[in-house]
Amino acid sequence: MAEPRPGLPLRFQRRFLAARPLRSLPWPELEQSLRTAPDSALLADILHKLESTAAEPLDELYETLADVLKEEEESTHCYKNYLLPSGDCVSLCESTALISGGTTGLLTWEAALHLAQWALQNPSLFRGRTVLELGSGIGFTGIAICKSCQPRTFIFSDCHPRVLRQLGENLQLNGLTPEGVTCSIQTESQGQELEGQNCQTPKVVVAELDWGSVTEKQLLALRADIVIAADVVYDPEIILALIGMLQKLSTSRADRKAPEVFIASTIRNPDTYQLFQAELDKAGIRWQVIPAHSSCYFLYDEQPDVTILQLFI
């Protein structure tokens, strides 16, 4: 397999490449176009083709993609409206690039749509409860749940500063005012203080949460009844950090019942997804597949292979 190129982190390559080792790119005409007229649309076309094949990308692809990403304007955003079954809508400012600002978190991915649809079909699971979302990105799933499922508190979380800033703007765009965009998880006493305040319903919190460094005490302060996540299982390098964080959630509940956990994943690389399941088994975390829904609320360019797992921590 080609070595990852400077400027394009391996975890971002893995989000849309399911690479298996072959020697060359099987589309000479695209390779020639890449050499003579590189642009984002062409590179995206190549990446989409790679998703469905066993081909290994050329080194030149990584180099050109990194150059294009560096040259893109910071203002390459668009506004999208997602219509909910209630007639309400979720309005989002999203990136027009797959990778922007060094992250893939500035646009809505397919698993977020599927998880939101499942939540809207099961509103009683969220009604009156505290929901913690891991890797919220720019906020689609959480905003849809806040608008349709009546949670008591919804905690959006991510670790990338630019994603957190865009998330905060999207919450404001949808009429949701966070308790405060924080630089770290609140302390337990602060969390209890907020719990007793008379706030809007639902109460919305934005928190910076790093899976590798968050403590059990900080997780306990969040008092989550339900934990959800979408499209966070795409890189073997972060799977152990995710599972470690879930284990902290399990041991940090004190006298509280363990939260219910639901994770939606787009199956891009079956090996990565099977690794996630194997690591869950190794950690003693039981899981089951949530049956797929038949109806479709949102439009997709292509119907993705998305699975929702319920975890028992």
TrEMBL record:
Belongs to the class I-like SAM-binding methyltransferase superfamily. EEF2KMT family. GO terms for biological process: methylation. GO terms for molecular function: methyltransferase activity. This is Eukaryotic elongation factor 2 lysine methyltransferase. GO terms for cellular component: protein-containing complex. Keywords: Methyltransferase, S-adenosyl-L-methionine, Transferase. Pfam families: FAM86 (PF14904), Methyltransf_16 (PF10294). The lineage of its organism: Eukaryota, Metazoa, Chordata, Craniata, Vertebrata. The keyword S-adenosyl-L-methionine applies. Residues 11-49 form the FAM86 N-terminal domain. The keyword Methyltransferase applies.
